[in-house]
Amino acid sequence: MLRWLLPFFLLFLISCIDPVDTDLNTQRKHLVVEGYFTNEASLNYVRLSYSQPHSSPYNEFEEKAVVTVTGIEGEWHLFSYDKAGYYYPIGGGEAIGIPGHTYTLNITVGDQLYQSEPVIMKEPIAIDSVHFEISEQTFAFSGEREKQLLPGYNVLVDYTDPAEDKNFLRWSFATQYEVRTQPWDYISPFTGLPAPKDCCVQCFLEEKLERLKVVDDRLTNGKKVLHQNVLFMPFEKYLGVKNKLTLYQHSITKDAYNFFRILEQQKVATGTVFDPPPAEVKGNINSINNANEQVIGFFDVSGVSTKQLTILRHDIDYPVIQFRFPDDCQAIKNATRVIPEGW
């Protein structure tokens, strides 16, 4: 009986869904802002692009904007354009924020002015210690769509939450690591036959690892927080030889916490009927000239504490699978043979 009713049930569900008439060619273009300003110089940048119709195969970046970050305490930082929509502060290591000060992002494009809401930089919360535990997780390397189950390290941090204020945290990471490949196993894509290469085996890479992980102190206010899981790193590729990992612990505002939390929820959604409906991701940047213009993005101001450590392959008590890349290691995107300073 159930088998007989199932087609009619499915037909009923389909009939209840109103068709969506979407003209992809009439979608409006909106400015997209990705901005970060901290007390750590290497983390400060603004990226400007435009939302594109689904039918467009290209990204469009804003290359001629005037970008500044100003503080109500009198600070003024000018950003200059680099490439791919990225603007970096002029002054390098001197262009940093001061915890407790209030900052505003200002963007001028032609005769249009865009401005963030003023944001107070929170005091950093120190990382007390970092631990690792062996785990298995589904993971996709950069540039790959399909995830696979891989062994690796969970990165865990300890910190003490201040009792005086309501605190919100997120984490970001920078990594330098060494890979060794197998150029002697190279197969020609034209003939399908072995075509061993003489060079090169050893290369070095740098990456910024982003995980939309945020927490609040609703259950931990004023307490010592132990083994907070902040990152998963597969042994393959990242930990095959040596890795220098830098952890940045950001003290963020409540608005930033809500913004990144919604992004995190939408990223991990499985796309089933049981997922909660997507929430509106509301940014903090507005058009001064046109109050009705929608601007996408967020200006995140945070106080950052830092912890750096080195992980060596021979210190890992686990049978790490060799990273397989049967080619010159320089064929890996952004790989270099130049040994990093202090390696």
> Could you name the ranges where pLDDT drops below 50 across 5 or more consecutive residues?
1-24, 270-275
Cα-based radius of gyration, to the nearest Å? 24 Å
H and E string: HEEEEEEEEEEEEEEEHEE
The class by helix and strand makeup works out as mainly beta
**Approximate shape:** globular
- The N- and C-terminal alpha carbons lie at a distance of 70 Å
Q: Write down the overall mean pLDDT.
A: 88
Number of helices: 2
Number of strands: 17
Major sheet description = 14 strands, mixed
Level of helix content?
Answer: under 10%
Strand percentage lies at 35-45%
Which key terms come to mind for this protein?
disordered N terminus; 42% strand; 343 residues; three-stranded antiparallel β-sheet; mainly beta; globular
Give a structural overview:
- The protein has 343 residues and is mostly beta strands.
- The chain contains 2 helices and 17 strands.
- The N terminus is likely disordered.
Quick overview of this protein structure:
The protein is 8% helix and 42% strand. With 343 residues, the chain is mainly beta. It starts with a helix and ends in a 31-residue tail after the last strand.
List the helices and strands and how they pair.
Elements: H1 2-15, E1 31-38, E2 45-50, E3 60-61, E4 66-71, E5 76-81, E6 86-89, E7 102-109, E8 112-116, E9 119-120, E10 127-139, E11 148-160, E12 168-180, E13 202-216, E14 224-234, E15 242-252, H2 254-268, E16 285-287, E17 296-312
Parallel strand pairs: 1-17
Antiparallel strand pairs: 1-2, 2-3, 2-6, 4-5, 4-7, 5-6, 7-8, 7-9, 8-16, 10-11, 11-14, 12-13, 12-15, 15-17
